Give the backbone structure.
Amino acid sequence: MKTLFINLLFVVSLNLHASFDDHFLSKTLRLDYYHLGNNLEDSYSFDELIEEPFWGGSKVNLIDTFEYGSYLFKVIDKETSEVLYSHGYSSLFQEWQTTLEAKSIYRTYSETVVFPFPKKTVVVEFYKRNKKNNWDKRFEYTVDPTNYFISKEMKIKCDTFKVNNAGDPATKLDIVIIAEGYTAAEMEKFQKDCQRFAGYLFKTSVYKKNKNNINIWGVKSISAESGTDFPGLGTWKKTIVNASFYTFDTERYLMTTDNKNIRNIAANVPYDQIYILVNTDHYGGGGIYNFYSTCASDNSNSDFIFTHEFGHAFAGLGDEYYSSETSYNDFYSLDVEPWEPNLTTLIDFGKKWKTMVDKTTPIPTPIRKEFYNKVGVFEGGGYVAKGVYRPYNDCTMKSVKFNEFCPVCSQAIQKMIDFYAK
Ligand SMILES: [Zn+2]
């Protein structure tokens, strides 16, 4: 009986793998497009297709079961209409749409989706969440894999190295760390910084027990000048992906709109998540779900920034704070349930962490000492004091505290690792 069971398992896993091999080659097709609009409207415009040498994602979990993020794309077999691949994500453009500037002008951002290289013609469908949090189809593009306009250039070739080697990228979470603001002479520092940051990740409880499921790669992307831009201080540095403080005029928000260079550099290794390590000691960083994360390399709180921002970019966690100054207006609609796994408006709390709340804990939960170390529903989160609730009194997603992810955030991270490590 045991042998039969093992044989059955073997057949099932062979079949699952066969489904990847039926439809895809083990390399990446990258579709670049432009996303433009203002606070009320947006549109998509095709840019280019690029073949990249590695596929870092799972070959089993091809359909996104989380559907986190403001956007979703599906890769559909043109002949059979079967959905072969899907992936949720968010973007800097979507954040910008909630700023004051978006009320007065239009802007254009470069964005990218990547999927395993299809064997046959596929239709890529782009979806966006509407105000009720349902998906609206906004754009589609048909990809013929034999099209000779698919670029095969390796646009930025860099030396790479392994920071943590857990094994086959198909069954691991793969994080690529890109050097930003490091000159050729500083590449040794970059390598040491990568080791230090891997240390921060694996000192964090939930990642510590998953060290064997996480590959970390370093890419030696060389900048002409050391450091990064501080527009508010008049400092400008010539760097490889053009990261900058003062994104949306918030000093600590360290981001870049240079999407194409980021992707060109990341393509040097198999990856699921992009981390941009910025060579500065000034406090700052950023992270957007399935987009990228950034972190200052040498700040005294770099360990916290690194894991907090990765919480956004990797696990789709929302900010649990509400007192800091941000540039966002009405980021969360109070009449729908937010998609982030660690925030709720109590509109549809059953979909969130309700099963983790003790029957004796009141919902909403008063902010009193007796509930400090309990999962509850505490008012204040997602940049507002009223109407958005968080699961714990304090958490790495709320305060500048390293290695204090609350049980709900930890569980969300673990579920995401499991998804990639299959
Ligand atoms: Zn949390």
